[in-house]
Design goal:
Blueprint lengths: L8 H13 L24 H11 L14 H11 L14 H12 L12 H13 L5 H24 L4 H4 L13 H9 L14 H16 L3 H12 L5 H11 L14 H10 L10 H8 L2 H16 L8 E6 L4 E6 L2 E11 L8 E4 L2 E4 L3 E2 L2 H15 L1 H7 L2 E3 L20 E4 L10 E4 L8 E2 L13 E3 L3 E3 L2 H12 L6 H10 L3 E4 L5 E5 L3 E3 L6 E3 L7 H9 L3
Parallel strand pairs: 1-14, 3-11, 10-12
Antiparallel strand pairs: 1-2, 2-3, 3-12, 4-14, 5-9, 5-13, 6-8, 7-8, 9-10, 15-16
Helix pairs in contact: 1-6, 2-6, 3-6, 4-5, 5-6, 9-14, 10-11, 11-12, 14-19, 15-16
């Protein structure tokens, strides 16, 4: 055995970590399956490895599952827990766990990530050298084993938390990610010489895997010469016929099914294609439909990439019962374990008053809610209305004025000098801005779900019409489902309707934990739950995230 060189922590560990985080410029390619797993004995000495590594990194004990722990600290703790033995390379010259890691790194392109960002080619080359050499210097074993560990921890964290900080690209994203790191599971797997797969860090939300499948579909489509040739014919044809466009739509989305009987012939597939991309479902090849059909598959991949990243900003797993409001889809889905008992349309904030992404638990259902005018609407709507129309504006909106003691006052005593001393409230009733039912979910942005007297808005294509809160299509049905099916109370919709008829406000507490996740994701499950459909990017956030992801390279 050659003489053992003493290397300090400032030398080996930073070099290993630096190698891990540098991007490789070579094109990623699959790990060769011809690696030998049987080489000569005594490829290196574990005692020498432990001695050298122990001299290079400190002992770190008792880490938590927090995802915010620095990678270098986590690396040191992992080797400490493993008694400073190798994690990836075997003394007999084999490396089955390293081979599995390289395979997973190669496949992360389906997650919208680049294997090159995780030293795939460099690691592949170094691992091949180790497997094919009869003997490896212990310094090289330390360097490669720690590099594999650093890469594993880096990629695990990126899969769990995302590669971009949400606030760097979306100032209205306030949804927390409280995912934990599975630290104990990793340590236990290492102690038993097992591999804790990177798949364990990926989102458990069904949509995430559907997006990965869709990525593979568009990746193969980008190499389909027939499809690309048909796309070029759109540009060369003076007026491309419906048959060509329908054929192209079916090649791009083979699972397309007509959505109505009102449109016949090839146009029924164009209408289904329009629904798949959040376009107006006319069945006619308007400019937006043609532009979407012309998009190269790689452009569609960028749509998938941004949404895979946004899902990584969310907790890896959700509660047993939860609500998702997808802002650009303008849709609410109620989830109960593996079932989806309710799905409905919503009205969301305008582009000027965007609905933020957040999470808050549902606490209360209010029947016949009064509406207290929030500060934003007071400033932007009520005060300008008063200046414009005077007290007639209050009468038209059904607003009453109250002092700080909660006493109703005569609006005539209010003028432009003292209106800020008062509160404006709309009593319950048919014209109340919140409708007949409100769902309280306390949060600092004062966002909640509610009914609306403007029922016609749910039939419209553009439903970005609110001041930020979420108007929902079936509030009474959802209230009855929560109170009856989840809370186990005798509160069917008929009882809700009878309370509404009394015109008295009633507060019903919700004791079941039902988090409401308000998210901005421009891809959702389709009606079958088996495929992805895209939505409009109503707040124009996709391109910002695309550029941020590209700038990492």
């Amino acid at each position: 055995m050659p003489a053992l060189k003493k290397y300090s922590l400032p030398y080996i560990l930073p070099v290993c970590i630096a190698f891990c985080f540098m991007a490789c410029d070579e094109v990623s390619r699959p790990l060769k399956e011809t690696f030998s797993t049987e080489t000569s004995r005594d490829h290196f000495d574990q005692e020498d490895f432990a001695e050298l590594l122990h001299a290079c990194i400190p002992e770190v004990h008792q880490l938590t599952d927090s995802a915010s722990i620095p990678a270098t600290l986590r690396l040191a703790a992992l080797y400490t827990a493993n008694h400073f033995q190798t994690l990836w390379l075997q003394e007999d010259g084999s490396a089955p766990k390293a081979t599995q890691l390289l395979k997973e790194i190669h496949e992360i392109r389906y997650d919208g990530l680049s294997p090159a960002d995780y030293q795939y080619d460099s690691l592949q080359y170094k691992l091949q050298q180790f497997l094919q050499s009869p003997f490896t210097e212990v310094e090289e074993v330390v360097a490669l084993d720690t590099l594999l560990t650093a890469t594993y921890l880096h990629l695990a964290n990126d899969l769990l938390m995302g590669v971009i900080s949400p606030h760097a690209v979306d100032t209205s994203w306030h949804h927390p990610n409280d995912s934990f790191f599975y630290w104990n599971e990793i340590v236990e797997a290492c102690s038993e010489n097992n591999y804790f797969p990177l798949d364990s860090f990926k989102s458990a939300w069904k949509l995430y895997n559907l997006l990965r499948d869709t990525w593979q579909h568009y990746e193969s489509l980008s190499a389909d010469s027939l499809y690309l040739s048909l796309q070029r014919h759109i540009d060369t044809a003076i007026s491309p016929g419906d048959s060509l466009l329908a054929a192209l739509a079916l090649m791009e989305i083979p699972w397309l099914e007509p959505i109505s009987d009102s449109i016949k012939g090839h146009r029924k597939y164009i209408q289904a294609y329009q629904q798949c991309f959040g376009l107006r479902r006319t069945g006619k090849t308007d400019s937006m439909t043609l532009a979407t059909l012309r998009e190269h598959p790689l452009k569609k991949l960028s749509r998938i990439k941004v949404n895979l990243e946004r899902i990584r900003w969310l907790p890896r797993t959700f509660a047993d019962n939860y609500i998702v409001v997808n802002i650009p889809a303008m849709e609410l889905t109620f989830h109960r374990q593996d079932e989806e008992p309710m799905r409905m349309l919503t009205v969301v904030g305008t582009r000027a008053r965007q609905t933020p992404s957040l999470m808050a638990p549902l606490r209360q259902i209010v029947i016949n809610p009064p509406w207290g005018v929030p500060p934003t609407i007071l400033k932007k709507d009520v005060i300008p209305g008063l200046h414009r129309e005077g007290l007639a504006y209050l009468h038209k909106k059904g607003l009453k004025v109250y002092n700080a003691k909660g006493e109703e006052i005569d609006p005539a005593t209010m003028d432009h000098t003292n209106y800020k001393q008062y509160f404006f409230r709309q009593p319950p009733g048919a014209d109340n801005a919140l409708g007949y039912v409100k769902f309280n979910m306390p949060n600092i942005w004062d966002i909640y779900l509610h009914d609306t007297p403007n029922r016609n808005d749910f039939t419209k294509y553009d439903r970005a019409k609110s001041s930020g809160c979420i108007r929902i299509e079936a509030p009474r049905q959802m209230a009855a489902y929560i109170l009856t099916s989840l809370e186990k109370r005798r509160y069917p919709q008929e009882r809700i309707d009878s309370v509404i008829a009394l015109k008295k406000t009633r507060w019903e507490p919700v004791r079941t934990y039902i988090p409401v996740h308000i998210v901005y994701i421009t891809a959702v499950e389709d009606a079958t739950g088996a495929h992805v459909k895209f939505t409009r990017d109503i707040y124009r956030k996709d391109e910002i995230l695309v550029k941020a992801l590209q700038s990492r390279h």
